[in-house]
């Protein structure tokens, strides 16, 4: 019997990682099997010029536009490539048509001024510009459950396109708080003692989002409702126990050009640093 062949030493600590979804496997066979059956094949972003597979959007960007970019690919890319989603188009016409829908503009500073000045928690909802088409949401979570790992929404903030805070309030968590995560959230028991009930926060948030239009009206093709922008919106909405029509959600964790690979998102921290400086 060939003892050497059975020695698992070398593979013990080398886990095999799927380059698309970053799932790890102890055995190579399992990774191969995973790649066969997973729907995310072809796995990585692919160069539209030479069809090379890259392990992330970052490396594809390097390949197309970095200092060591492949000369031919980078030449084509500079004329016919979208610098956001890195797709290559067959004419400058279709590229400029595409740019209209792929365009993301980054405002100078995204830090809402009112948050910096330590706004009192009783202050909420200044008025929102009626013309605003989109609002961004962020929730602050404290911990519930025996180990404090369950996310409970304790603060929510909405910002309009001009960075005005249009809604900002603490919220009474629905379950007992076992960890305030103070270092991260700055939230204390005292701050939540007279906080807004979740239901009232819902009503106010939905009032801003639907712009006074009824949910029914919206479902029947209303046009007044605003876009809701956020990072990993499903999580925020779940914690708020709120739902909002899918076609009105814009999620920076799900938007392909901002993702790490076809399946894995970047962290919000990373996105802000990279795209907003
Ligand atoms: Zn995978
Ligand atoms: Zn290429
Ligand atoms: Zn694009």
UniProtKB/TrEMBL annotation:
Entry-linked InterPro entries: REXO1/3/4-like (IPR047021), Ribonucl_H (IPR013520), RNaseH-like_sf (IPR012337), RNaseH_sf (IPR036397), Znf_C2H2_type (IPR013087)
Pfam families found in the cross-reference section: RNase_T
Keyword Membrane: no
GO terms for cellular component: nucleus
Coiled coil stretches, renumbered: none
Name of the protein described by the UniProt record: C2H2-type domain-containing protein
Keywords assigned: Hydrolase, Metal-binding, Nuclease, Zinc, Zinc-finger
GO molecular function, one term: nucleic acid binding
UniProt xrefs under SMART domains: EXOIII (SM00479)
Residues annotated as domain C2H2-type: 16-45
């Amino acid at each position: 019997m060939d003892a050497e062949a059975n020695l698992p030493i070398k593979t013990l600590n080398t886990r095999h990682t799927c380059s698309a979804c970053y799932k790890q496997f102890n055995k190579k066979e399992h990774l191969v099997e995973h790649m066969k059956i997973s729907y995310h094949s072809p796995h990585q972003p692919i160069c539209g010029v030479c069809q090379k597979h890259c392990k992330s959007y970052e490396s594809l960007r390097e390949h197309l536009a970095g200092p060591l970019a492949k000369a031919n690919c980078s030449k084509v890319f500079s004329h016919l490539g979208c610098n956001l989603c890195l797709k290559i188009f067959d004419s400058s016409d279709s590229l400029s048509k595409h740019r209209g829908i792929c365009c993301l503009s980054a405002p100078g500073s995204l830090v809402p001024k009112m948050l910096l000045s330590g706004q009192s928690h009783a202050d909420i909802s200044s008025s929102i510009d009626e013309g605003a088409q989109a609002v961004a949401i962020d929730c602050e979570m404290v911990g519930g459950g025996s180990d404090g790992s369950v996310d409970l929404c304790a603060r929510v903030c909405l910002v309009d396109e001009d960075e005005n805070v249009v809604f900002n309030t603490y919220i009474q968590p629905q379950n007992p708080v076992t960890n305030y995560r103070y270092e991260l959230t700055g939230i204390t028991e005292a701050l939540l003692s007279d906080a807004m009930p979740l239901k009232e926060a819902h009503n106010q948030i939905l009032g801003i989002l639907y712009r006074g239009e009824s949910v029914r009206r919206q479902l029947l093709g209303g046009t007044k409702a605003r876009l809701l922008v956020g990072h990993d919106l499903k999580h925020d909405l779940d914690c708020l126990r709120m739902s909002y029509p899918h076609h009105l959600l814009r999620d920076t964790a799900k938007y392909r050009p901002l993702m790490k690979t076809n399946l894995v998102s970047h962290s919000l921290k990373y996105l802000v640093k990279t795209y907003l400086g």
